[in-house]
Design brief:
Number of helices: 4
Mean pLDDT: 94
Low-confidence stretches: none
Distance between the termini: 10 Å
Number of strands: 0
Number of domains: 1
Oligomer: single chain
Length: 141
C-alpha cells in the first residue's frame, strides 16, 4: 500500500504546476489586456500575486522535501525535486529583486524599457514547468 508521503510526491508537484501555469502563463499576460489596467496598476497587482505565488511555492517545496525525506524516493525524484527547488530559489533570490527594483522605478513614474530580467524569469518558469512534470512522473504511484 502506498503511503501518504508517496501520494504527496505525485500530487503536490501537479498542484504546484497548476499554480505556475495559471498565474505565470495565463493571469500575468492577460491582466495587461483588461480594460482600464495601466502599467503601474498591473505592476502593483503582479507584485502582490507573484509574492503570494512564490510563498505558496516555497511551502510546497518544503512539503515535498519533507515527504521525500519520509519516503526515501529514488535518485530521479530527488534530482527533479532539487531542480525545481533550485529554480525557485534563483527566481526569488536573484531575479525577483531586480524586477522589484525596476517596478519600483516604474511606479515612481520613470519610463523604462523592458528588462532582460523579465525574460530570465519567464525562462526559469518554463524550466520549472518541465521539472515539475519530471518530478510528478518520477514520483508517480
Amino acid at each position: 500500500m502506498k503511503s501518504i508521503g508517496q501520494h504527496l510526491l505525485w500530487f503536490l508537484p501537479m498542484l504546484w504546476l497548476g499554480m505556475v501555469l495559471a498565474i505565470s502563463f495565463l493571469e500575468a499576460p492577460l491582466k495587461f489586456r483588461a480594460p482600464g489596467i495601466t502599467v503601474p496598476l498591473g505592476l502593483g497587482i503582479g507584485r502582490l500575486v507573484f509574492r503570494a505565488l512564490n510563498t505558496a511555492e516555497a511551502v510546497l517545496a518544503v512539503a515535498l522535501l519533507a515527504a521525500a525525506a519520509g519516503v526515501g524516493p529514488g535518485a530521479a525524484t530527488w534530482w527533479w525535486l532539487g531542480s525545481a527547488s533550485a529554480i525557485l530559489a534563483v527566481q526569488v533570490l536573484a531575479v525577483r529583486p531586480i524586477l522589484t527594483r525596476r517596478s519600483n522605478r516604474v511606479l515612481a513614474g520613470e519610463d523604462l524599457p523592458r528588462s532582460s530580467a523579465h525574460h530570465w524569469y519567464v525562462g526559469l518558469e518554463i524550466a520549472k514547468v518541465v521539472t515539475l512534470i519530471g518530478l510528478a512522473l518520477a514520483a508517480a504511484p
